[in-house]
Every structure is written in structure tokens, then in C-alpha cells.
Design brief:
The chain is an alpha/beta fold. The strands form three sheets. Strands 3-2-1-4-5 form a five-stranded parallel β-sheet, with helices on both faces. A five-stranded antiparallel β-sheet has the order 10-9-8-13-14. Helix 4 crosses helix 5 and helix 9 runs antiparallel to helix 10. The longest helix has 19 residues. Helices cover 39% and strands 19% of the residues. Helix 1 links the parallel strand 1 and strand 2. The radius of gyration is 25 Å and the shape is elongated.
């Protein structure tokens, strides 16, 4: 079977694990390896990945490094935030939402280069193997998928390091490199492993990379204003930026004020529980602002329906079904709800907190002072409420006459 693979596209970060996978593919499958490295705002210099791939025998024309930051925010992050998406009440899905874009682009490169197979560095224990492979198969069901962690016997750090040393793969620790298993992009940074494997232990302060400890955040709050059009952020304090520029700006603001740290235990798709820590400064601000805008622009029942559907939508993203028909159906409903989500929200940032202090929409607000005022009005007859209440209580009245007790 291995001999049938002539060319494989590898999702390649340039780190130890994927460099070992690159060499392992060359040795085990005797095939030509094409590397793909996606820039989705992980904040790392990506040219070293090119140099490392070259040093491992990859041809220059077989090295693909692509800037996907704006596509990531515009076509993946923003649609997800239109739904106010949270998994299991807390997680803003920073890793989950990045995988379909990486996998889609990788599959496109496989098609372009006429590759037989595609490979990733996800383990057989996690969610990412599912997310990557569902997307691969959605785009090209004929591709052979190679998941080394499910095939090889390099199942410990010691074996990986021994393999690297044997084959001359650079294993020197990069300056400032975290000992944790990390994933970073423009939406978040995640941490797993080491003491986090005991949910009773508190993470060291030195673990956090982006968000300032709220105790050390500025003693003065900062007020910002976000402008939205059809549910998407378009400007911060009146300044219009690219989608990635907007999220980057929100990240800096949130990180400065200690906003967006999270420590949770979540349920993986494969069945086990996993403890992870996350930093999502910009996303935390964006979620708060978007819900505030919807509070004045979205119809009551439409808003409630969205809230009912959101957990299902969140599970689809978390479990890797971004390209599924059901996610697309839900997205169409969500996007329809955002036609009138236009306006601005004013927020105060202070020591880990995001507080909404104002919201307005010039043309789409459903907040009507004439109806809800505590002062005298001429549009609402309070006597109408008596019939409304009795109609809603009719089943109680009938049951009570039948001697039923509640």
C-alpha cells in the first residue's frame, strides 16, 4: 500500500513533530513530500519552516507558505461570531474554527500538485484528526489520508527525540518556546499538557503569553466603540481596518486589560475529557459587543431561536463539521438574522472585565421608548395585559377546575 503513494501534502509547522513526520513519510512511504504552512496569525516567523523543509530534502517548488489571516477572520471567525458561538458554555472555539480553512487549503494544494495523499500531525486521541479528515474527504474523497500518530510506534517524547537525533533533525529548543502543547492563531492561543493534565492544579503565571494578569492590568479603564454591519465588525473607534486588522486590534486591547483568560475542562468528540487553558482577548470583547447590538436590533423570537440553535452550531464546529450541509443550513438562518444587525456598541475595558455601557442603531433599533417608558404614553393600553395574562393562564384555570394541583 505504501508503494502506491508517490506524492503527499503535509500540514507542516516546522516544529519538532511535523519535521519528524516529514522525514518519516520520506522513509516509510518513499514518496515526495510537499509541505504546506498556513499563516493564520500564530505570531511566529514562518520562513524558518521553509529553511527546515529545504534542509530535510523538500524541493523549493514543493514548499507552500500562504497568508490566510484575512480569509480566516472574514470567512470563518466572523460567521461563527454572528451566531454568538460558545462550546459548553465557555469555549470560543479558537482551534476548532481554524482547522477547516487549513484542511481546505491543503486539499486544494493536493489537487494542484496532483498528490496522491495528504498528511497531518494530529494524534489519535484528539479532535483535530476528525476536523482535518472530515474536511479532506469533503473536498476530495479519493485522497489517501496518512495520520502518522495512528501508524508509527513513536508514541513517547523519548522515542521522538531519539528518532530526530538518529536522522539529524534539529531538536534544539527555540528561545522562549513554551513547554506546553500550544496552538495559536488570530483568535486565540491554547495550552495543554504538563500540570494542566491535573484539573486540580493551578497553571503557573508564566504560562500565559498574551493576556496580562487582571491584577496587573491598568488601573484606569478604557472606553472603546465598535461598529457593526450585518453582524460583522467593521470599525474600532471609527477606524476601518481589514478583518485581520480588526481582530488584531481587539486582541491588543483585550490583552492589555487582562481580558480573555480561560481555564476549562471540555468534552472531546472522541469521548474523553480534556483540560485546556485559553487566551481569547479579542473574541471575548467581540462576543459581548455583538450580543449587545442584537439586543436592540433582533426580534425577540428570532433571538431566542438563535440561542436555542447555537449549542448545536457550536458542536458542529467543535466536532469538525464546518463543511457539512447542516452547518451551512444553520449558517443561512443565522446570516438572515443579521440583516438588521447594524449599529455601534460602546464598551468599557477594565481589569479582566468587558462592560457594555451603550448601544445604538440609527435605522434598525427595535427599542421604542414610546412603548417601554415609565412615563405617561399614548401608544400602549395597560388594560390589554389582563386578557393577555388570562389567555396564557387558560390551561392552569381549566386544570384547576378539574381539581389538579400544581
Amino acid at each position: 500500500m505504501n508503494n502506491e503513494i508517490k506524492k503527499v501534502v503535509l500540514a507542516y509547522s516546522g516544529g519538532l513533530d511535523t519535521s519528524i513526520i516529514l522525514k518519516w513519510l520520506q522513509d516509510e512511504y518513499k514518496c515526495e513530500v510537499i509541505t504546506f504552512t498556513a499563516d493564520i496569525g500564530q505570531g511566529e516567523e514562518l520562513e524558518p519552516a521553509r529553511k527546515k523543509a529545504l534542509s530535510l530534502g523538500v524541493k523549493e517548488e514543493n514548499i507552500f507558505i500562504q497568508d490566510l489571516k484575512d480569509e480566516f477572520v472574514k470567512d470563518y471567525v466572523f460567521p461563527m461570531f454572528r451566531a454568538n458561538t460558545i462550546y459548553e458554555g465557555e469555549y470560543l472555539l479558537g482551534t476548532s474554527i481554524a482547522r477547516p480553512l487549513i484542511a481546505k487549503t491543503q486539499a486544494q494544494i493536493a489537487l494542484k500538485t496532483k498528490a496522491d495523499a495528504i498528511s497531518h500531525g494530529a494524534t489519535g486521541k484528539g479532535n483535530d484528526q476528525v476536523r482535518f479528515e472530515l474536511a479532506y474527504l469533503a473536498f476530495n474523497p479519493d485522497l489517501k489520508i496518512i495520520a502518522p500518530w495512528r501508524e508509527w510506534d513513536l508514541n513517547s517524547r523519548e522515542k521522538l527525540l531519539a528518532y530526530a537525533q538518529k536522522h539529524g533533525i534539529d531538536i534544539s529548543k527555540q528561545k522562549g518556546k513554551s513547554p506546553y502543547s500550544m496552538d495559536a492563531n488570530l483568535l486565540h492561543i491554547s495550552y495543554e499538557g504538563l500540570i494542566l493534565e491535573d484539573p486540580a492544579k493551578t497553571p503557573e503565571e508564566s504560562m500565559w503569553r498574551w493576556v496580562k494578569n487582571p491584577k496587573d492590568a491598568p488601573n484606569e479603564s478604557e472606553i472603546i466603540e465598535l461598529d457593526f454591519q450585518k453582524g460583522d465588525l467593521i470599525a474600532i473607534n471609527g477606524e476601518k481596518l481589514s478583518p485581520s486588522g480588526l481582530l488584531s486590534r481587539l486582541n491588543k486591547l483585550g490583552a492589555k486589560h487582562g481580558i480573555g483568560r480561560l481555564d476549562i475542562v471540555e468534552n472531546r468528540y472522541v469521548g474523553m475529557k480534556s483540560r485546556g487553558c485559553y487566551e481569547t482577548p479579542g473574541g471575548t470583547i467581540l462576543l459581548k459587543a455583538h450580543r449587545a447590538l442584537e439586543s436592540i436590533t433582533l426580534d425577540k423570537e428570532a433571538a431566542h431561536l438563535k440561542d436555542e440553535l447555537m449549542p448545536k452550531y457550536a458542536s458542529l464546529i467543535y466536532n469538525g463539521y464546518w463543511f457539512s450541509p447542516e452547518r451551512k443550513m444553520l449558517q443561512a438562518l443565522i446570516d438572515e438574522s443579521q440583516i438588521h444587525a447594524n449599529g455601534s456598541v460602546k464598551l468599557e475595558l477594565y481589569k479582566g472585565n468587558v462592560t457594555v455601557i451603550g448601544r445604538q442603531s440609527a435605522n434598525d433599533s427595535l427599542f421604542n421608548t414610546a412603548y417601554c417608558t415609565f412615563e405617561e404614553d399614548e401608544v400602549y393600553n395597560q388594560k390589554d395585559a389582563a386578557g393577555f395574562i388570562r389567555l396564557n393562564a387558560l390551561r392552569f384555570i381549566i386544570a384547576g377546575k378539574n381539581k389538579r394541583k400544581f
